[in-house]
């Protein structure tokens, strides 16, 4: 809330229509007292929820009184005000509104002195530059605009965000930060005394990734067990720690990511400088467990060594060793106040350490097998430990003895957590159950069931209301009060994509269903659910009438794209249906299967009309020519077959790949074939020649999708290495690398006009890439993603568990 300079009260609000500012105490138009430096609104942007007040009942009376007294009211915007910012000298106010305008007000004269028009969508955030020469605005149109405050005109548009720009903040020395709904934070540097006529370009050299103001290790920084920092301006990797990462965590202030690498080192990545700051050596074996103190000063690491190493984060050095265990340390944790350290070991003991003195204060023996996890209550009175011996034991630190225990029948306990109010010890088991042990009553209250895989992580919300649990295949949030499942997120791999010729619809095969997306609204319109096995291929007819899906249930289903009704189900294959094609008359469907056959079906007659038995391996992919004369077929036996459909005979066999053919494309003029393989290569063939014209050997993993443009100028490839690459066919060189996916790319589809490439991932995310602009245009998350973000917004402590859902780990 703003402070009024006339009555020195925090009472400046928006009027009831959210378009004007006035003081409800003295009925003065809004002014500010610049001497109040403790006002958080003096230097930061103000969002609408900060100026909307509880006591709005008298606002119209105040406005009426103000009009009677002065005959004028501070007004101008035509819709709700979304953001306000006051200049450092306190003389000017800038406002951004749903009316798409930015307006500047003279607070002394109480007049609007400028209106900036240019944004195409609501203005969500406005700020002054450090020197007050510029006004910066961020909008739902995904742009950031710079306005010359003195000349009162627009001087620059900054692009980069792929979704709404939600917030701006000025840092120092003309550096400002933007945050977008695309989960990116961008840091922008304005040249010194920049006024718009400088030859220097404004850059966004630093890109941070996160969900709801929380950085995420899993989103874009760790891929293939290696850490990659991407320079999006150049579209390539700027920094790479090409080493397997055993474990990683953020410091609580998000200043560093601490990584344990396969080369037995501790690595500190500075999240602000976006670089590896230092690598610390000392451990003689791989580090698999670490704990960072809540004051982000120290890191504990546990390995196959019989001791715990203590690292100073600020000085980047090892400062001590906690020695005493007689076998490998399996788990370690700091107490909240950092006074104690608790560790568990393969020596079957639990030890409590005085962190400041680096000495053992208690040794608890009782477990009969390796310790799997440890936790300490917030009051530092009790330790909870779990073991492969299927027991959960509670130890009193003061009395140095076991206080109570729970012994399961057949279930190994892998992880534990203690609720902040110290009421529950919550544990996850190998048999997929969550146990709630009441520490006050010393008894097991209930088992929560719902996971389908072994539980390996548990987090309790700070308000003791919810528990988040994680397994390899799903994450579940439980209501701790009702002891019921609140929300489940499951992995949903997308196996297939198809685009309607008019670019209106995109269909994706997700588990046993076919999801129909409207590309205009980016919304899911319908889910077609008649298959009983995973949908692994799909095609849309050229007249936009039919969508056809093939499945692991051995069937092919034809749907009416407009009514979403099932037209016909074709059965006849004896193994998975892996690929589909449709003739240009929209009458015939061609299918390829793991049963080593190609079948042709008639939609109108609803029967199979032809069968081709191949002396090859599984048919994996196919493409039909635009004139319906040529069919090219890829197989798991590493060959490509070229068929004349008019004569129903094989006319060529192309050999060269060393592993299965995963994807295939045929040029519009039927001269060239492009193939992608599990041998990590893309090969370009002339349809009449036996050998490849050339081989593209630039991907680091399977090539799961290929495309050739209608004019034969460029090739697009999508790979399991999570990249989409564009190649100049004439120059035979890579011209662009497009990134974004953080899990394996499973399939590729390109719009009929060749402008957009759509890719899907094992994590269930669909991304659209602009092939002309060579950039990501937008992405579609699974339905759960929006819910995940809401949970993280309310419970940031769940971030470390839930944020991996953005795209599942490979």
UniProtKB/TrEMBL annotation:
Pfam entry (one): WD40
SMART domains associated with the record: WD40
Keywords carried by this UniProt record: Repeat, WD repeat
Ranges for the WD repeats: 74-115, 116-157, 158-190, 280-321, 322-363, 364-397, 528-569, 570-611, 612-653, 654-695, 696-737
Gene3D superfamilies referenced in this protein's UniProt entry, alphabetically: YVTN repeat-like/Quinoprotein amine dehydrogenase
Name of the protein this chain belongs to: Uncharacterized protein
């Amino acid at each position: 809330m703003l402070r009024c300079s006339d009555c020195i009260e925090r009472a400046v609000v928006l009027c009831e229509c959210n378009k004007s500012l006035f003081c409800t105490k003295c009925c003065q138009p809004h002014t500010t007292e610049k001497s109040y430096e403790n006002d958080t609104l003096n230097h930061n942007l103000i969002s609408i929820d900060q100026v909307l007040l509880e006591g709005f009942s008298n606002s119209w009376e105040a406005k009426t009184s103000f009009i009677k007294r002065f005959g004028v009211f501070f007004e101008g915007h035509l819709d709700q005000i979304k953001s306000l910012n006051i200049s450092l000298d306190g003389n000017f106010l800038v406002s951004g509104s749903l009316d798409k305008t930015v307006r500047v007000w003279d607070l002394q004269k109480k007049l609007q002195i400028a209106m900036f028009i240019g944004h195409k969508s609501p203005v969500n955030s406005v700020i002054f530059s450090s020197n007050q020469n510029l006004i910066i605005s961020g909008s739902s149109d995904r742009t950031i605009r710079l306005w010359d405050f003195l000349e009162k005109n627009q001087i620059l548009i900054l692009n980069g965000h792929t979704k709404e720009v939600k917030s701006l903040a000025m840092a120092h020395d003309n550096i400002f930060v933007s945050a977008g709904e695309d989960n990116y934070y961008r840091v922008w540097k304005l040249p010194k005394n920049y006024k718009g006529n400088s030859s220097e370009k404004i850059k966004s050299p630093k890109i941070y990734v996160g969900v709801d103001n929380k950085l995420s290790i899993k989103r874009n920084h760790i891929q293939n067990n290696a850490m990659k920092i991407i320079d999006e301006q150049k579209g390539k990797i700027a920094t790479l720690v090409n080493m397997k990462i055993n474990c990683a965590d953020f410091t609580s202030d998000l200043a560093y990511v601490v990584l344990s690498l396969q080369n037995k080192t501790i690595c500190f990545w500075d999240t602000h400088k976006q670089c590896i700051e230092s690598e610390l050596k000392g451990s003689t074996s791989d580090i698999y467990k670490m704990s960072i103190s809540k004051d982000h000063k120290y890191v504990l690491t546990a390995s196959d060594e019989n001791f715990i190493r203590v690292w100073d984060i600020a000085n980047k050095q090892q400062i001590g060793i906690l020695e005493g265990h007689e076998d490998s340390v399996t788990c370690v944790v700091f107490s909240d106040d950092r006074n104690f350290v608790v560790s568990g070991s393969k020596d079957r003991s639990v030890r409590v350490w005085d962190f400041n003195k680096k000495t053992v204060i208690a040794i608890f023996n009782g477990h009969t097998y390796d310790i799997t996890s440890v936790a300490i209550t917030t009051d530092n009175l009790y330790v909870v430990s779990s073991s492969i011996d299927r027991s959960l034991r509670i130890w009193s630190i003061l009395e140095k003895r076991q206080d109570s225990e729970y012994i399961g029948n057949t279930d190994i306990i892998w992880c534990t957590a203690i609720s902040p109010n110290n009421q529950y010890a919550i544990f996850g088991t190998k048999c997929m159950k969550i146990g709630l042990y009441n520490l006050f009553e010393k008894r097991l209250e209930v088992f929560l069931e719902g996971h389908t895989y072994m539980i390996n992580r548990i987090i309790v919300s700070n308000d003791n209301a919810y528990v988040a649990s994680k397994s390899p295949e799903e994450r579940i949030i439980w209501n701790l009060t009702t002891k019921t499942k609140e929300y489940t997120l499951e992995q949903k791999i997308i196996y297939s994509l198809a685009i309607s010729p008019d670019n209106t619809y995109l269909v994706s095969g997700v588990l046993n269903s076919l999801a129909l997306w409207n590309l205009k609204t980016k919304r899911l319109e319908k889910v077609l659910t008649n298959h009983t096995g995973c949908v692994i291929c799909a095609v849309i007819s050229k007249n936009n009438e039919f969508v056809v899906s093939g499945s692991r249930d051995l069937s092919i289903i034809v749907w009416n794209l407009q009514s979403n009704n099932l037209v016909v189900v074709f059965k006849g294959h004896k193994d998975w249906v892996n690929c589909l094609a449709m003739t240009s008359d929209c009458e015939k469907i061609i299918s390829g299967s793991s049963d080593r056959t190609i079948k042709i079906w008639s939609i109108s007659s609803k029967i199979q009309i032809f069968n081709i038995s191949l002396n090859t391996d599984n048919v994996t992919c196919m493409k039909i020519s635009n004139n319906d004369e040529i069919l090219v077929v890829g197989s798991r036996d590493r060959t490509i077959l070229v068929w004349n459909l008019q004569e129903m005979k094989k006319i060529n066999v192309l050999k060269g790949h060393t592993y299965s053919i995963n994807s295939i494309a045929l040029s519009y003029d039927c001269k060239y074939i492009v193939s992608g393989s599990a041998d990590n290569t893309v090969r370009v063939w002339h349809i009449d020649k036996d050998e490849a014209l050339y081989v593209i050997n630039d991907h680091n993993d399977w090539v799961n999708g290929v495309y050739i443009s209608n004019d034969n100028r460029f090739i697009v490839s999508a790979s399991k290495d999570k990249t989409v690459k564009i190649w100049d066919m004439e120059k035979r060189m890579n011209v662009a690398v497009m990134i974004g996916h953080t899990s394996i790319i499973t399939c590729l589809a390109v719009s009929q006009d060749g402008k957009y490439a759509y890719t899907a991932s094992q994590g269930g995310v669909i991304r659209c890439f602009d092939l002309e602009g060579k950039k990501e245009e937008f992405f579609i998350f699974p339905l759960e993603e929006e819910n995940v973000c809401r949970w993280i917004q309310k419970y940031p402590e769940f971030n470390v568990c839930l944020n991996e859902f953005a795209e599942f780990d490979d």
